[in-house]
Each structure stands twice: as structure tokens, then as C-alpha cells.
Specification:
With 184 residues, the chain is an alpha/beta fold. The protein folds into two domains: 134 residues, HUPs (Rossmann fold, 3-Layer(aba) Sandwich); 31 residues, no CATH class. It contains six helices and three strands. Helix 3 links the parallel strand 2 and strand 3.
Length: 184
């Protein structure tokens, strides 16, 4: 901890940062689009396919900072951690049992937990990250892709993307340079 003398001229660090600017952009966009500002949701998608690392934590903390900045602007904000736990296992992470190779390509929620302490491999990996978030005091609502799909929460969005696949592919290309979603 730094030594800060009582009554020093030190300024509070935080106001005017990139996340404050992003929060303001989000509020302005939502207002311009005529959307409700009752609750502004900020979401962080987290992988469930491997052991969480500094990048995983960084992704979540950046988005959490934006959610806090929205609150500082006087709006209610909800921070959601969304587990991409229907993703397929693409490779076996270093240090994990080679027996996982037989499950390559399967959704991580359909793979047994090799440590036998969670209902699936995906649940085990997500637990590790959520445990870290709890320990550092990040407040969030957890959502799982498996549960969202089961409850049909994304049906409208999936339908819209499929009905507009050509347009969506062009937008992805313009934003990322990825050509794989362009029709040929």
C-alpha cells in the first residue's frame, strides 16, 4: 500500500479512464437507439474449455470496470458472466489428462470431469474462474450457454442471424477481416 498523507493533494484515479469513456458511449448509444435505460447489462463471455489464465481474468475485470462506470454515471447496471460451455473441446490443455483426447470435438458440458468433483469438465473449468472472481470481490450474475439454449433464451437471435446470414457475414468481414462467413 502506498503512503498517502491525510489531506494530500492526490486526485482520485479512475474518472476519465477508457472504461468511463466506454460507459458513456454505451449509455449514449442505448439512448440514441431508444432502448430502455432501466438496467444496462454488461456481459463477459468466458471459455469453459481450459484452465482459466490471466487473459480470462483480464477479460472479466475489464467488462466489470465498464459496468461499475455505468453505475458511476447514475444508471443501474448488471454484470453477467456468460459461460460458453457448449463449445467443443478443440485440444487437451497442457497438464491435463491425455484421456481427454477421446472427447475432442464434444461440448465441454458433455465431457466427464477428469478430477471427479464437478458434473462435467466444463463445469470444473468455469468453477475455477468463478472461484477467483468471488475471491477478488467481483459481483456478477452467472449464465451458462447450456442453460440458455435449453430454455430457448437465444432462439430469436439465432433465427435473426440465420435469416440475415449474408448481411451478418459481411459485417463480420468488415469488422474482423474473417472471410469464412462470406457466402461463396
Amino acid at each position: 500500500m502506498g503512503n498517502m498523507a491525510a489531506g494530500s493533494d492526490s486526485k482520485i484515479i479512475g474518472h476519465g479512464t477508457w472504461y468511463d469513456k466506454m460507459a458513456l458511449k454505451i449509455v449514449e448509444r442505448e439512448h440514441r437507439l431508444g432502448r430502455s435505460l432501466d438496467v444496462i447489462r454488461v456481459e463477459s463471455g468466458v471459455a469453459a474449455s481450459g484452465i482459466p489464465h490471466i487473459g480470462s481474468l483480464s477479460e472479466v475485470t475489464r467488462n466489470y470496470a465498464v459496468s461499475l462506470a455505468i453505475k458511476e454515471l447514475g444508471y443501474k447496471s448488471e454484470f453477467i458472466v456468460f459461460s460458453d460451455n457448449r463449445d467443443g473441446l478443440r485440444s487437451v490443455p497442457a497438464g491435463l489428462p491425455k484421456s481427454l483426447e477421446e472427447h475432442l470435438g464434444k461440448p465441454v458440458t458433455d465431457i466427464p470431469d477428469p478430477f471427479e468433483c464437478h458434473s462435467s469438465y466444463g463445469d470444473h473449468m468455469v468453477y475455477l474462474l468463478l472461484d477467483a472472481l468471488d475471491k477478488i470481490g467481483i459481483e456478477y450474475r452467472f449464465m451458462s450457454a447450456a442453460e440458455a439454449y435449453k430454455r430457448g433464451l437465444l432462439n430469436d437471435e439465432i433465427r435473426d442471424i440465420l435469416l440475415n446470414s449474408t448481411r451478418v457475414g459481411k459485417i463480420i468481414y468488415e469488422e474482423t477481416g474473417q472471410e469464412k462467413y462470406l457466402e461463396t
